[in-house]
Amino acid sequence: MAARVVLVAGFTHHDVADELWRASPESSLVRHDLSGLADGVVRRWADGRLTVLELAHGCVSCTLRLDLVPLLERLDGRVIVQLDPMLEPEAVCFALSETEVEVEAVVTVVDTATWLDDATGTDSLADRGMRAAEGDERTVAQVVVGQAEFADALVLTGPADPVLTAVLDRLSPAAPRRLISEDVAALLGEIPATARRGEIDDGFGSLLFGRPSLEPAHGVSVVHFTDRRPFHPMRLHDSIDVLLDGVVRVRGRVWVASQPDAALWLESAGGGLRVGNLGPWEGERDQEIVVIARSADTAHITTALENALVTDEELGLITELDFADPFADWHEELEL
Fold this sequence. Notes:
Helix content is 24%, strand content 26%. The protein has helices spanning 16-23, 60-74, 89-96, 115-120, 140-149, 162-171, 233-238, 298-308, 312-316, and strands at 3-10, 28-33, 41-46, 49-54, 77-82, 102-110, 153-156, 177-179, 221-227, 247-254, 262-269, 272-280, 287-293, 332-333. The strands form 2 sheets. Strands 4-3-2-5-1-6-7-8 form an 8-stranded mixed beta sheet, sandwiched between helices. Strands 9-13-10-11-12-14 form a 6-stranded mixed beta sheet, sandwiched between helices. Helix 2 packs across helix 3. The longest helix is centred in the N-terminal third of the chain and has 15 residues, at 60-74. The chain starts with a strand and ends with a strand.
């Protein structure tokens, strides 16, 4: 029988995984320490037994491919997996998607004292001494936002202020929440049937997962920008800064005139930006960008995106124009 996995993510120290393990006597507990990953060393505890792994190439994907995934494939029953703080649950679920391992739930612990500053800051993992490997350029914001966004349930380390509540309501609107001081194990029974439970989106589905409110609250707003004409690549590039300042999260599927057959993926958290390629369009081409703004002027964001679209004149000459394209060499194939 394949393992049923509960992934517990979070950027702060916590005992949530242990509590879930103790509440389920037949379950197993697995945790990884990636603090030595840059030197090719990974420490893994499985039901209290320590194994020190030496990897020829220390990286997160190697750890998943060579250790965590094979381990979970060997286990059965419920397995509580406490993820290292630098791990994003979506990457783990992607690695498990080709196996028979079932993701029962993703639970993320949110440190209410630091999360909002982390989510809107510009620190890199390297700045915090947490870079997973050489070349890991992720920001702290990308990690903490990704952990919360992909969660089926959230555990809060303390009461959340109204701004943090408003952000989480829009970032992970369907996820039930409990304080860490409450019965966390009961939270698993409150996860709705429509929860993601580790399912990886191919990038072409709705970007408003969980149907967050589009009404502003406590200075937090959502911009849902759609259009049926392409972006001018240089004008879109010039408007990128508008999507970074005072913004918690951007996720977007974009069409640029210089690459008519490619669906590009744009994603940011805090000051970290990623542009990738989803492959060819599945259906009609269009723009869809969702922005969760903490303090940014949403009207300014909408205007900047509208101004980045091709004009009627450019649209009429689109097959004849030679667009300078700053996105041509900037993106990578996304594994979604």
